[in-house]
## 1
Amino acid sequence: MVNNKEILIEVKNLKKYFQVGKHATLKAVDDVSFFIRKGETLGLVGESGCGKTTCGRTVMGMYGATGGQVLFDGVDVHKLNKKQKKDFTRRAQIIFQDPYASLNPRMTVGDIIGEGIDIHNIYTGQERTNRVYELLQLVGLNKEHGSRFPHEFSGGQRQRIGIARALAIEPEFIVCDEPISALDVSIQAQIVNLLIQLQQELGLTYLFIAHDLSMVKHISDRVGVMYLGAMVELASSHDLYEKPLHPYTQALLSAIPVPDPEVERNKARIKLEGEVPSPINPKPGCRFTPRCRYAKPICSIETPILKEIEKEHYVACHLFD
Ligand code: SF4
């Protein structure tokens, strides 16, 4: 059992449904549970449309929950009073996928970064200016950048600005919502390394959402794999990459290119076949059934429950019943 004191975020049976017609419900997040310890990174991966971004935003309270709980330091994020909400927004921040769309083009970078400082009235006057300069330097920019506008920066620099903005109010927890997906491959590693360095310096806790499994491995202590709104596997990075148990995780991992050309040539790639079922009014049973090469009759009848198969290695699959 995990010591409760170590846990910063606890997500219990979280559901986020969207009504998309009179009789149609999109179950974007359907009964998802996980926790994140203080100072660790939980990676959340899956194909686009699997619900990982909706999950991150519901954890942040940006979407109301249809069911379940998100406990931040033991307090339900969806039941905060005004004062608690202000406290939560100071302690928890989000970095978005598209750094350009999330930065106001009419504001200088200094004002974008300083906005949170002003809202929470943390520093004023020269102290505020110094704090903005400090943040720019912390993310690898310099103080002259503070007087420029977002369009004057490259994608990687804009993501650094987004990170500085998130850090401005000294949060403990950051949801990194696909922060590298819109960046060139050469820049992705720089941003991931910056996030790792900041975590070590500031003791941050991350929920790192991505579809790129190789980068997730680099930054995450543990990784959760989502498929059509459900968590199908959750384990330490090492266990998930070395001995994936769920057929979907195995297929995702087999698609990652290996740098060694010899190994890459001889590697068995598991091809995902069959149609991706719709998350709208999903049928009972395992949602991976139409694409799973191990599917058996029970798979299309009973929804598998996420169970601990080995220490802290959870899988939702009837192969492990
Ligand atoms: Fe495949 Fe059945 Fe496991 Fe789903 S529950 S992943 S269909 S074996």
Note: The pocket of iron/sulfur cluster is lined by residues 246-247, 286, 288-289, 292, 294-295, 299, 304, 317-319 (CB under 6 Å).
## 2
Amino acid sequence: MKLLFLSESDRAEIWRPVLQRLAPELEFVQWPDVPDPAAIDFAAVWKYPPGELKRYPNLKLVSSLGAGIDHIVGDPDFPAHVPFVRLTDPTLTAGMIEYALYGVLRHHRQMRAYAAYQREGRWKPLPAPATASCRVGVAGTGEIGGAIAQAVKGLGFDVAGWSRTGRGPEGLRMYAGDSGWIPFLGRCDVLICVLPLTAATRGLLNARAFAAMPKGSAVINIARGGHVVDADLVAALDSGHLDYALLDVTSPEPLPPGHAFWAHEKVELTPHIASLTNAETAAPQIVDNIRSYLAGRPLRNLVDRTQGY
Ligand code: NDP
């Protein structure tokens, strides 16, 4: 059995020894050096040239090497008959939680104001906000968003979630679907976006959404840049309606020079580093899914391509 590692990144040298140790029965074939495309049974993929998967007529299962799969679902030439599984990874989730907590605490504890006071040489205490009265909303309460919601709630914040179906961690107040969106935003002093990028979620963080949020609120986007309408975010920050945006993702990446986010005093920008998939903790799931496929067992984290996640 042959497993194709198909990625334009240089991560093959990290994944190869881990996958080979876990599944010695699989022969690791590193793209683009594929002498016999018909011999490929499985593929583990990350950013690759669209259409590439068409070249492998006997492909049985495709695994993503990461959690965000919009670029793969968006490949019009993805072979429709081949099942596609995405990845969940406890190490990746832990990094996402850390990043989200940083943003929530930075806003809630007014650290940007204190940083400005320090630069001005001012010693100026501000009224201390109560944790339980700070309302945090997590848009997308799946694998990662659900864990973030629980971690933020664990610190005593007033947390709610929003998802398409209303599914979320047990005990979390949930809002669902289109009708729940604006009521959900109305109680977001901090909004954390952890949605997959799909046709339904692209551009969701727009002027209408920002206007529905309370004055002085903050937006943390750790999902995809395509969720945000950049000009609307800048306008909401400039008008004083929003106070802070922490953005790990942008569209495009990297942002072009001169883009308004680079120098905006209310925007904090990081280069898509909120978290990374860890081969050691993620690879077992790829191998388990291949073995499940071969044994006719259900696959874990099967992507619903009609929904796009
Ligand atoms: P999951 O598939 O586990 O969860 C997706 C969540 O989004 C679910 O709660 C789902 O709702 C909800 N959702 C999907 N579509 C809609 C919609 N139209 N309206 C409302 N809710 C919707 O994904 P993960 O938690 O694993 O990952 C989320 C995203 O995080 C990834 O797609 C990726 O883009 C991003 N990411 C970013 C990283 C970074 O470093 N910045 C690293 C890793 C991931 P329901 O359950 O009701 O169907």
Note: The first strand starts at residue 2 and ends at 6.
## 3
Amino acid sequence: MATRAKAKKRRPAAKKRSLTEYKRKRDFATTAEPVARRAPRRKQELPIFVVQHHKASHDHHDFRLEHDGVLLSWAVPKHVSTDPTVKRLAVQVEDHPLDYATFQGSIPEGEYGAGTVKTWDIGTYEPEGDFAEGLEKGKLSFVLHGKKLKGDWTLVRMQPRPGERPGKPQWLLMRHHLTK
Ligand code: MN
């Protein structure tokens, strides 16, 4: 196929965040979880982050960062660690509505994620650089302003591995190392 050698270098359009998958997985007549509603873009101070302690079939943390009207979401099977020498596996899951940041309570049996959800930490964060670009490239750096979690953190996406569940990219969550 003939292509122009000097095709203009264009950045691919950032992926639109969507709550379709969130909605598909839940029955809102049964669960008290927030409905799939995109929040209007907020022009206020700083976006929020939340870590939820989710006691489901597996006891884990959910790490969420507000971005583009939704919460980017990762399940952290071994819980978030504040130890800067520890990297935690963080499996990216479907975007959640912004309202989910303040959701606490139980998810009934038979529903997706059945169990209890409690806030473990909540606060604001400062994205470093362009987050849309970071999502494409698989590296997000940010400063957390929570009660338990503070300072520089990084999420790095790993190369897909054979057998990885499609649509659930694996990342590593770690406190930023200032010395290598
Ligand atoms: Mn969860």
Note: The mean pLDDT is 89.
## 4
Amino acid sequence: MHSENIYILGIESSCDDTAASVIHNGKILSNVVANQSIHEEFGGVVPELASRAHQQNIVPVVHQALAKANITKNQLHAIAFTRGPGLMGSLLVGTSFAKSLAYGLNIPLIDVNHMQGHILAHFIDVEGFNKPPFPFLAMTISGGHTQIVKVKHYFDMEVIGETIDDAVGEAYDKSGKILGLGYPAGPEIDKRAQLGNPKAFKFTKPKVDGLNFSFSGLKTAILYFIQKETKADPDFITKNINDICASIQYTIIGILIDKLKLASKQTGIKHIAIGGGVSANSGIRNALKDGEQKFGWTTYVPKFEFTTDNAAMIAIVGYLKYLDKDFSKSNITANARLKI
Ligand code: KG4
Ligand code: ZN
């Protein structure tokens, strides 16, 4: 099955990153991402601007991905693209481009679920990184998603928990906004958290049944806390920034780990993988290592370039579907609310 030389181009445009990647069998030859800095001044992604930037970026990004892989488009066996979930205007750019290219080259088109991409990124061949065995639990944590998924096989997945409001990355970014930090604030909060006392301030964890998450109450609690404290001392934030960040991080990581523990207990699964931009967080990485000691978990964190939004994860899913000859129909459409 793996003896053939299969080249697949993956295209990702679900949110604010335009990305393209070439995969040769299970190995990534190129992984190009054009980030859109335009959103920084707005403190969040502006959909209208995102789709416009995708249109500007898509041709150069694909061109670069092919050049870096040192192949021509005529050597491709299929085009894989993100069908959803995501922002409709953003998805339409990648979908239409992928369709046209596949049609022009007369090769198969393969639609990919972005969330499955985050999870199946663990199956890219990378030296020093192990692939999780089935079944495993995958927690996808980013600015757009927070899910726990039971992965029985590549395309046999079940969402067993998800956020009922904000995503965990949003909790970081919105807390950062309250503290006057730049966007996205996750990395900065993480950096400062490592210098502060995690127990300096206490924020109550939300009470959500089962394996679901909620982060909007935490954001409000932080807002009220900061408003109250700065009334008493206008320099409160500056004086306590590291402790505030450490306390926020401690609360957020506590919420994530509580749910993972429960998911592992309920399913009896001890192989735990994470994905999405928040996987870069030092707190979650340390907590997973602790889990290996305390609960006998085996944990999997993908290489950094495959955790944030990227097209390599779309290309690997494309490759797995190609092996199954699971191709898209020519009338396939983008789906902003696509489910796993
Ligand atoms: O996966 P990603 O690049 O894009 C999507 O949102 O899909 O994730 C970006 C999110 C942002 O919310 C950012 O603040 C957060 O990931 N993030 C972090 C860290 N690095 C990125 N959050 C906490 N700690 C980090 N080190
Ligand atoms: Zn994502």
Note: The mean pLDDT is 95.
